[in-house]
Amino acid sequence: MDLTYTEEEEAFRAGLRTWLSRALPQLPPRPDPLDWPGRRAYDTTWQRMLYDAGYAGLHWPEEAGGRGATPTQHLIFLEETERAGAPYVGANFVGLLHAGPTIAAEGTPEQRARWLPPVLRGDEIWCQGFSEPDAGSDLAALRTRAVRDGDDYVVTGSKIWTSHAEVADWCELLVRTEPVSESVPKHRGITWLAMPMDAPGITVRPLRTLAGSTEFAEVFLDEVRVPAAHRVGAENDGWRVTMVTLSFERGTAFVGEVVACRRTLAELAAAAKANGRWDDATVRRQLGSLNAEFTALWRLTQWNVSAAGRGGGVPGVGGSVFKLRYSHARQELYDTAARVLGPDCLDLDRDWTLDRLSSLSYTIAAGTSQIQRNIVAERILGLPKGR
Amino acid sequence: MDFQLAEEQRALKSGMRELLAARFDRDALRAAVDRPAVDRALWRALGEAGFFALRLSEKEGGVGLGLPEAALLFEEAGRALLPGPLVATHLAAREVPGAATGETVVTRVDGPLVAWLDQADLVQGDAVDATPIRSLDPLTPLHRTTGTRTDAPHEAVLLTAAEQLGSAARTTELAVQHARQRAQFGQAVGAFQAVKHLCADMLVRTEVARAAVYAAAVTGDPYEIAGAKLLADEAAVRCARDCLQVHGGMGFTWEADVHLHLKRAWVRSEQWQSAEQAAEALAAAL
Ligand SMILES: Cc1cc2nc3c(=O)[nH]c(=O)nc-3n(C[C@H](O)[C@H](O)[C@H](O)COP(=O)(O)OP(=O)(O)OC[C@H]3O[C@@H](n4cnc5c(N)ncnc54)[C@H](O)[C@@H]3O)c2cc1C
């Protein structure tokens, strides 16, 4: 068990720190969090800066245009960018963290050449069209149909909760290419497609979140033509490809945020000291135990990353263990903030308030806590599948 | 950075598990419940295996290993519910003759409590006014003293946390085993989501505690150690409770081992550093 970083890793960290200290002041002002076109522009500008400095797609394999960095270097990257207050991946989330890695792992050489460089440069952003109105947790129950017509698939159906669909160029889309029947169980007959968001027949209807923003949308698909060449993996083999996507989504997606939570906790302690709530032993101890919580979650991250480093890169189900605890801890953090800050936590102009609202999605998005528990129980503990 | 067990650490841990399986199996455990006493022969076997002398240098007749290795051994001890003042004796290995080899059993006054007073060869601290209480845990005889809680050595806190971790991992395992075997309504109870989710939460608690305990053992940082104790106490207590629940009526019997884990977890939660002390230490670090 070694928690010290090698000389090489420390050198990488030092280089990154220096670069961050020069790069961050050059960023344009942060956009209004409710302004998605503004956020897209901001996030992709940042991505371009990373690309020019050689930090784009750090954890991607070199054949895919990445730096082939070790999981530990990726961790250092997330730690340092958070610590420096750099922008979060934001609009680049899907492309960089799961569509890209999926194409890198499962795509043809032509597909990699077409889609990966623009993701790394910040030229194109992706959204995720998995969930449907009647297929959320039960993702394989999806009904959006794709029928082969010459060189195209003709897609009809609808998707929901599609984050930043309004501003995306591409969508990682799951479709049904074979109807469910006695001989075709629902997990078969699914295909993974890359759909251009400007194709005729696509209507995006923004949905308003409880935070008042429109960060996700409903996407209606009316005979949208998607070239068959945009299929990743074989026809009807999409469920397997999806599992690859989900392992990336659940495995690494929240890692950097733990660092942010530790910073937020320190700010909260400072606020409590300033407004006198620190004198309340219950509040103080609650802050202390959150300190234990986020420190442990950071250590668990290092543990998982080290395990992935030994196991060859694809994150394992350890991501579900992490996500379960983290999503609840994050919500507890903001509940404690409300105790410390009192009425200030009702003011929508305070960052705390908006962050508290957004933390409510963490136990739902990317698989609800209940679904994560099923995964932990069945895939790690080997308990029988059931109802 | 490679935050995973090294090959030698893995071997050390499995060696300890084998030793305990051979010398302190379930029959021995239940015999100890009926007649709690420090098993001197076992204590010496632990001494021979380096359990107490682990962190002494080879010059001092020790093994020359560190806190991480000690934590791994104490995790195994916690898993097996090994009784006796293990932490106090381990801590005394340098200064008390015979402690390192397991010849001398050492206990220590820990705030208002002292464990194994009648069985120990040596008591550290003031136990003059100690009066026996009927201990909740059949495997830990306790005396009350007039002392108050003081700051315990960090190593004691950490090694106790490691024992709690071992206990949490064990009750998780016991619950999962039972959930796979026990059938109701025509299927294994582990197929019911209500049961499955209890088990999943047990694993999550255990793994978070594991990361905290191992990391604290590596850094030796007092704040991280406090966090490890807080999380490991919680994991041990709550996993034992959930394990009891998963066992149904069987869980409420003297016959099942679950209560032994829960009672010991409660005792350890009161030892060396309380939850309040840990939380205050962690708050002070903010
Ligand atoms: C902020 C946000 C962003 C999102 N972004 C995207 C996106 O970009 N692309 C995308 O495709 N999707 C996205 N999602 C969708 C998300 O993946 C789904 O909301 C989630 O998987 C849950 O599905 P559902 O909403 O249909 O809820 P349901 O599946 O209807 O769940 C309702 C309740 O039932 C419980 N439940 C369901 N099945 C089970 C079961 N087997 N066992 C126990 N309990 C169960 C759930 O835990 C939940 O409590 C996003 C969601 C949010 C909140």
Description:
The complex is a heterodimer of chains A (387) and B (286). Chain A starts with 6 loop residues before the first helix and ends in a 7-residue tail after the last helix. Chain A is α+β, with helices and mostly antiparallel strands. In chain A, a hairpin with an 8-residue loop joins strand 6 and strand 7 (216-227). Chain A contains 11 helices and 8 strands. In chain A, helix 4 (93-106) runs antiparallel to helix 5 (109-121), helix 7 packs parallel to helix 9 and helix 9 (318-341) runs antiparallel to helix 10. Chain A has 3 domains: 7-88, no CATH class; 126-235, Butyryl-CoA Dehydrogenase, subunit A, domain 2 (Beta Barrel); 251-381, Butyryl-CoA Dehydrogenase, subunit A, domain 3 (Up-down Bundle), CATH 1.20.140.10. Chain A has helices spanning 7-23, 36-52, 71-83, 93-106, 109-121, 238-252, 255-275, 281-311, 318-341, 351-359, 369-380, and strands spanning 126-129, 145-149, 152-163, 170-176, 190-196, 202-207, 216-227, 231-232. In chain A, the strands form 2 sheets. In chain A, strands 1-4-5-8 form a 4-stranded mixed sheet. Chain A has a 4-stranded antiparallel sheet with strand order 2-3-7-6, with no helix packed on it. Chain B is mainly alpha-helical. Chain B folds into 2 domains: 7-144, Butyryl-Coa Dehydrogenase, subunit A, domain 1, CATH 1.10.540.10; 154-284, Butyryl-CoA Dehydrogenase, subunit A, domain 3, CATH 1.20.140.10. Helix content of chain B is 56%, strand content 7%. Chain B has 10 helices and 7 strands. In chain B, helix 6 runs antiparallel to helix 9 and helix 8 runs antiparallel to helix 9. The mean pLDDT of chain B is 96. Classes of the chains: A alpha+beta (387), B mainly alpha (286). Chains A and B meet through helix 7, helix 8, helix 9 and helix 11 of A and helix 6, strand 7, helix 7, helix 8 and helix 10 of B. Flavin-adenine dinucleotide is lined by residues 127-131, 136-137, 161-163, 216, 361, 364-368, 370-371, 374 of chain A. Residues 127-131, 136-137, 161-163, 216, 361, 364-368, 370-371, 374 of chain A line the site of flavin-adenine dinucleotide.
